[in-house]
Write a structure and sequence with these properties.
Distance between the termini: 18 Å
Protein name: HEAT repeat domain-containing protein
Oligomer: single chain
Number of domains: 1
Shape: globular
Radius of gyration: 18 Å
Helix content: 55-70%
Organism: Myroides albus
Length: about 220
């Protein structure tokens, strides 16, 4: 059954301006989930205010996610600064990267923004970039899939160096996306096989088994 938005536009505006963080988070989530582009400016202003509070990372993440979902282009400058700071373990960086890609890409299967961010990205940027593939059911052209695999393989040493317990390995998201790709393709099959032998990925909650069976592992 489709979700129904019970709150009016004015209700959501009031929630965004609330002194209570849970109400601001609720408004942002609803704006993103229901794609309410008319509230983009209000959400953006709420985010700018929220971003001044270093302790409000959770609310910032939800607002950034919503801005990405409604493809609010005016936030690209702020997102770019976060990405350029390239903090290794940081949820805001992770969400900023995902939002940046959703806004910048020409269509759902456009991976050019992902490839650009993979070049210099640390772990949080890599996670944000690759989870866009899994969350949005991206199915690139085969030549682009090969580029993705090559780009991720180039980051393997960095991933192993920066990964720690409690943090996602970015390759998990690529594997999840592969569950919907042609897994009989030699290069895709080889990547899955290599990951199955990885000391971390090979033991990750039946991840490889699910991917091989065509089961999506991660959803937003």
């Amino acid at each position: 059954m489709a979700k129904v938005l019970k709150e009016s536009i004015e209700d959501l505006k009031l929630l965004l301006e609330s002194s209570k963080a849970p109400e601001r988070r609720k408004a942002a989530k609803l704006i993103g989930d229901f794609g309410i582009v008319d509230l983009g400016d209000s959400l953006y202003q709420a985010y700018l205010k929220e971003s001044k509070n270093l302790k409000a990372w959770e609310t910032q993440c939800i607002m950034i996610k919503a801005l990405g979902k409604i493809k609010y282009k005016n936030v690209l400058q702020e997102l770019s600064i976060i990405i350029e700071n390239n903090i290794i373990h940081d949820m805001i960086t992770n969400e900023a990267t995902l939002a940046f890609i959703r806004i910048k890409r020409e269509n759902k299967n456009d991976i050019i923004p992902i490839l650009e961010l993979l070049k210099e990205g640390n772990l949080s940027v890599l996670n944000g970039a690759l989870k866009s593939l899994a969350f949005d059911d991206v199915v690139p052209e085969i030549k682009d899939i090969y580029k993705l695999i090559d780009a991720v393989n180039l980051k393997k040493s960095l991933i192993k160096e920066q990964h720690k317990v409690g943090v996602f390995d970015p390759r998990e998201y690529l594997l999840s996306a592969m569950s919907k790709w042609n897994r009989k393709d030699p290069k895709i099959s080889s990547f899955i096989e290599e990951c199955s032998k990885d000391e971390y990925l090979g033991k990750r909650h039946n991840l490889i088994e699910k991917v091989r069976k065509g089961k999506k592992v991660y959803a937003e």
